[in-house]
DNA sequence: AACCATTCAGGTACCATGTACGCAAATGGA
DNA sequence: TCCATTTGCGTACATGGTACCTGAATGGTT
């Protein structure tokens, strides 16, 4: 091969059904990726080391390098595998609001199933086939609204930003607790809790205090909170679509 | 000390001017943090290892642990130091739109000066004093608009999400190029470029293609692009403030 | 059937990292 | 002068990615 790994993993597809001499591969990229995802789901990405993945498959760490050039590329594959679980209709229904709501809930579900997903997704610029598929669906929901492509990508970006940060908020503390080894209850009570309480009691940041103490949405379930924020974003988008809100 | 590091770094302030026996500290938390920031600015966070920071200070790696409990805490300190550079007026001016514009530009400037900032900030839930200061200012810009605290935090979140993801977009490729060791030109041409071109030529994602090929904003400078997106977010917020846009 | 170029499996090894531990040096009060 | 206390930091260990190399498996060719 001429390309010495100095190219995107998506340019180096796995070759199935080779004909010719040589030992037959005993594993698959997908099998390796799936194993990595399982470990990361259960114990966090940092547990999905090459040795650990290989061990789970009953082989040695170096064997994985026959299928994946570098560990970072495995991250791209994991992201794409998680995105492949997002089920969407064949095409937009014509009602962008309900389509985007469906999409947002699917992404949230995937983000909760795979608590590492959003962190990886936002930490590296990757464009796997399934991310492209989802992105294309999102762009397509605005067909017929008269928006040009720049406004369309802008709105999709707004939605995406909201979904990502909402998911991050929802799992942020839990993940941090797991990473430090404390159980979530202890972490909230012993680690972050006392500090927040101290800040609140100082009274130096009155509006922050109100956002902690006087929040109405704080009593909602995570899903309700997500839906509420999502509706606000969709309201914002609706307000900016000229064909809907003449100004 | 009773607390065995199982508490936030902000709860363990550095003690200056101790009286009593014992050798005097030769370094400072701030000095160490500043060194770490310099290294990270120039060569990326992954270069700011304990050994490297210590080496830069002319000492041994383990000396740092007299000042910082864990490496992760050093990240929190770095974030806060970067946020401390954000200069804001003493209080909101009463014009939320211009205040938030000022704030967004300051954050963008800090994010470009410290390309690791946004990645760290969004990868861990941290609440350093300077982050609180900036957040409080943002919340305060809406005083007088009649918004309740939940709507206020929602809007500040929207702005924050935009600023973060815009900065990430702006430096994403550059950082990735640096991390892989290629210079930016080569990376865009040899690594990501060919793949995007291949995707475009396949024609499987027509709207994605238009977003790549037919973009008007693609010809703007990064700063103009940032401003344009920012104005759209502020438009969206304005459209949702009841006292401004009766519905 | 024998041979061989080709491909995979995976052990060993190297280097870098965070950090626990322990001891020597420095310090100021008694 | 002595000593409890605190800092400086070398040593050591566990864990990580991954380069390199040897041996085993495989299917076409002779």
UniProtKB/TrEMBL annotation, chains A, B:
InterPro entries: Homeodomain-like_sf, HTH-type_TetR-like_transc_reg, HTH_TetR, Repressor_TetR_C, Tet_transcr_reg_TetR-rel_C_sf. Residues 1-29 are annotated as: Disordered. It comes from the Bacteria. Residues 26-86 form the HTH tetR-type domain. Residues 49-68 bind DNA. The keyword Nucleotide-binding does not apply. SUPFAM superfamilies: Homeodomain-like, Tetracyclin repressor-like, C-terminal domain. Keywords: DNA-binding, Transcription, Transcription regulation. This is TetR/AcrR family transcriptional regulator C-terminal domain-containing protein. It comes from Nonomuraea antimicrobica.
């Amino acid at each position: 091969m001429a390309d010495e790994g100095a190219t995107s993993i998506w340019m180096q597809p796995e070759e199935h059904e080779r004909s010719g001499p040589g030992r037959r591969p005993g594993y698959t990229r997908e099998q390796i990726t799936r194993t990595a995802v399982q470990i990361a789901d259960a114990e966090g990405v940092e547990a999905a080391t090459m040795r650990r993945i290989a061990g789970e498959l009953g082989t040695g760490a170096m064997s994985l390098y026959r299928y994946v050039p570098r560990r970072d590329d495995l991250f791209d594959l994991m992201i794409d595998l998680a995105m492949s679980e997002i089920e969407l209709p064949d095409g937009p229904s014509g009602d962008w609001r309900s389509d985007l709501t469906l999409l947002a809930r699917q992404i949230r579900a995937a983000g909760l199933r795979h608590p590492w997903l959003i962190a990886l997704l936002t930490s590296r610029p990757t464009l796997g086939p399934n991310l492209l598929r989802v992105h294309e669906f999102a762009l397509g929901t605005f067909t017929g609204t008269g928006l040009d492509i720049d406004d369309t990508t802008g709105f999709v970006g707004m939605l995406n930003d909201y979904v990502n940060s909402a998911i991050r908020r929802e799992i942020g503390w839990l993940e941090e607790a797991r990473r430090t080894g404390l159980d979530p209850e202890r972490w909230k009570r012993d680690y972050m809790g006392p500090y927040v309480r101290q800040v609140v009691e100082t009274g130096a940041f009155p509006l922050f205090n109100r956002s902690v103490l006087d929040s109405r949405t704080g009593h909602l379930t995570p899903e309700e909170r997500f839906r509420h924020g999502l509706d606000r974003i969709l309201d914002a988008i609706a307000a900016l679509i000229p064909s809907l809100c003449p100004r």
